[in-house]
Amino acid sequence: MKYIEEFQNPDLAKRLLDEIHATVTRPWALMEVCGGQTHSIIRHGIDQLLPEQIELIHGPGCPVCVTPLEVIDKALEIASRPGVVFCSFGDMLRVPGTGRDLFQVRAAGGDVRVVYSPLDALRLARENPERQVVFFGIGFETTAPPNAMAVHQARKLGVENFSMLVSHVRVPPAIEAIMRSPDCRVDAFLAAGHVCSVMGIGEYPELAARYGVPIVVTGFEPLDILEGVRRSVRQLETGRHTVENAYPRAVRPEGNPAAKAMLADVFEVTDRAWRGIGTIPGSGWRLSERYRAYDAEHRFSVEGITTREPAACRSGEVLQGLLKPHECEAFGTVCTPRTPLGATMVSSEGACAAYYLYRRLGGAPAPAAGKEANPVG
Amino acid sequence: MADSTTARALAGGTVPGPSQPDGIPEPHFSGWTCPAPLRDQRHIVMGHGGGGALSAELIEHVFAPAYGGAALAQLGDSAVLPLGGARLAFSTDSYVVRPLFFPGGSIGDLAVNGTVNDLAMSGARPAYLSCGFILEEGVETATVAEVARALGEAARAAGVEVATGDTKVVEAGHGDGVYVNTAGVGLVPDGVDIRPQRAVPGDVVLLSGPVGAHGVAIMSVREGLEFGVDVRSDTAPLNGLVEAMLGATRDLHVLRDPTRGGLAASLNEIASAAGVGVVVRERDVPVPPEVANACAVLGLDPWYVANEGRLVAFVPREHADAVLAAMRAHPAGTGAALIGECVAEHPGMVVARTGLGGTRVVDLPLGEQLPRIC
Hints:
The structure holds 2 protein chains of 2 kinds. Chain A contains 16 helices and 11 strands. Chain A is of the alpha/beta class. In chain A, the strands form 2 sheets. Chain A has a 6-stranded mixed sheet, sandwiched between helices. A 5-stranded parallel sheet of chain A has the order 2-1-7-8-9, sandwiched between helices. The relative contact order of chain B is 0.15. The longest helix of chain B is centred in the middle third of the chain and has 18 residues, at about 140-160. Chain B is of the alpha+beta class. Classes of the chains: A alpha/beta, B alpha+beta. Chains A and B meet through helix 2, helix 3, helix 4, helix 6 and helix 9 of A and helix 1, strand 10, helix 9, strand 12 and strand 14 of B.
């Protein structure tokens, strides 16, 4: 594929890997912030090709995982009401709230639809003026601009049967919260490239300076990730901690001014609860006063919801790199990919699921960089 | 490390941790809990029909105990049954695809090719089909006629005869236009024993052509998701291709058509049924560029996307060249490739060797494949 295959080239990858191997002299823990990066790392087996000293800690960048239970329960409540068309991105449908998920709401008669853009939900609202159409607006700075656009359009066009359940989260406060955690052992961050393509990199120099941590804006294809790792290791080995942009084909320092203007108009910064973590100050967005009429929480009066978290697990420690998955007492016994306690055991990119699957492979050592340990056919 | 018990008790709440000197509360990372999918389902959800782990659970816990019988225990694409001195392959499938007509085919094509292919995957020569229509009140007669015409043409192309049928009409709102069920029978030739349990270490894995086209073609015309991609469904009968492969050797071990759940589900089912490991070299699995593009945009993995005219074959290594040549000489197998092998290690698991030289586990899809947010 144009502009994708080029960034998966094995020969170039080997060159980057060789340089990383030649540069590293001691252990470093790097956190890739975005779930998309974690996916790519596992998908291409990148973690197995890096030097043993480099540990990749999978960060909190999965919006599905961090959306608080309270908001999920509000979504379930709203979606269950008669006359409501509840629209969501696909992978929110199987996230459990207190005792059920959106699939089950749909199975019980709720009108829950998967859409690919919030503007599709707005179109549904215009086509069905007798129904209340609600869009589940979650995600990081990447999904926020189109969501803001949908609300902006709804107001402009006077689509009064449209509203949005908003639970947006922001990356920089999460990075700061991780760095402030007393047990933090992250040495460098691979910042989320697409978040930066929207927001720019202006928020990061202060963080890098205050916490003495390299922050390298990183893309998503294998070569992008290896380049992010290479630059992080180079900084760490030479005792530097600056912000670098290793994803310049998508990220300009100033970000996307039009998107930022739209965000500033529609949203305002608020404290936000992250599932399992608690509140991180200033880490979220909600609809601003001008757009409050389009806020589904207000429209459907779902403030009084009480939540009950299912059995807890220690994935928080795993996500911070404080605990290896197999050191958890539940690992492989009550907690498996078929019977997961936490999201890290759910998806194939989750740290626990990856450990579980590779352990079943017999703990085979990772193949040497650029070599095929066990060629096929 | 923080007291994880206390932190876990707080998990999910918004109770801030102890304040740091500047008054900003410290978040509770050590109690981080993440959502897990719910498994004890009180209602049928879409994933139960997705061909993945939820479908398997439904069969194992609901259908198999209720029916009993040795035939169902085979749990293959088709059952092979002794009857009057011959071996009869028998299979049924229901078709609920939406829209009814899509680039490269229609529900009529699928209703024939799907059942014909299920029979062919046991090495049988498909002979007769039954065809049941469930029509929704109000659907246009011309639409039904068009489906029937497509179905008849597909049957002739596959060399099978529609021998019996049934029609029911349900009230408006109780169906989705046209549903079709077909069942089919065929005879398994002497000396042919093709089933998932026969995969053994040393077998090579052959794939008859590029994967992912059918699922992407359907998605490209789904309401609300029309996108400008020129991908046509690969729907095709595979009995001719199987016949050609059997011409190279009767000793084919396993055949499977990777429909729902795609290539990943089929390989996992075979690995699990035979208790073997499967290793696939990623760059040898053909994926059309348009399919790869569409999947990248939608956050889908082409290995999990449905096909309707492809097969995977597990073949003894000594016959690999002959079978591959026979496949490539047949119109339904021109893009055939050797994609991997069957191994004794990691039984029940499928492992991909990535383009960069890493490995990853190719898991069984849980239910419906959903576009990811990130």
